[in-house]
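Dear H.,

Thanks for agreeing to be a second pair of eyes. The structure we're designing against is below in token form, covering all 149 positions.
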């Protein structure tokens, strides 16, 4: 199977079988972000588990890219500490800036490597980034961002 169609399959699988979709009880912070050019919406909610790991859930609607991105993100950052979440988000942002030339680190990005092809299409980049921006906002509101040093 070609890598590109494999990546397409990963995105469609997350779209059809979303991970982490739902409402988080006792959320410490939430953020609702909209991508008007495509009509995507996502609400991300966060709180901390007993070990200080991030718990995250989302609700959303929109195109397959935006919703699959939310699902992949939730799977990746669930249970991670704030510094790790930042590192993963930076890696994803770098991938989205790569214009399709990125060589993503699967150890860091997991299924998010499938979005490398999306970075060739500026209009779709916004779709892919939507949940990640909402996550950052939700974390800020909850006061669970990594210390910036
Ligand atoms: Zn979209």
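And this is the sequence the design step returned. I haven't edited it by hand at all.
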């Amino acid at each position: 199977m070609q890598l590109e169609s494999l990546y397409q399959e990963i995105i469609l699988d997350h779209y059809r079988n979303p991970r982490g979709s739902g409402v988080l009880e006792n959320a410490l912070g939430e953020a609702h972000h909209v991508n008007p050019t495509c009509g995507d919406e996502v609400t991300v909610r966060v709180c901390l588990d007993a070990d200080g790991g991030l718990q995250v859930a989302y609700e959303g609607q929109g195109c397959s890219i935006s919703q699959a991105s939310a699902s992949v993100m939730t799977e990746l950052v669930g249970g991670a500490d704030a510094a790790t979440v930042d590192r993963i988000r930076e890696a994803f942002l770098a991938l989205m800036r790569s214009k399709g030339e990125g060589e993503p680190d699967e150890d860091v990005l997991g299924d998010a490597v499938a979005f490398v092809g999306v970075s060739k299409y500026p209009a779709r980049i916004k779709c892919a980034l939507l949940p990640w921006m909402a996550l950052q906002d939700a974390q800020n509101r909850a006061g669970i961002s990594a210390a910036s040093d």
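Two observations from my side: Strands lie at 29-35, 40-48, 54-61. Residues 35, 38, 40, 62-63, 65-66, 127 surround zinc ion (CB under 6 Å).

Warmly,
E.
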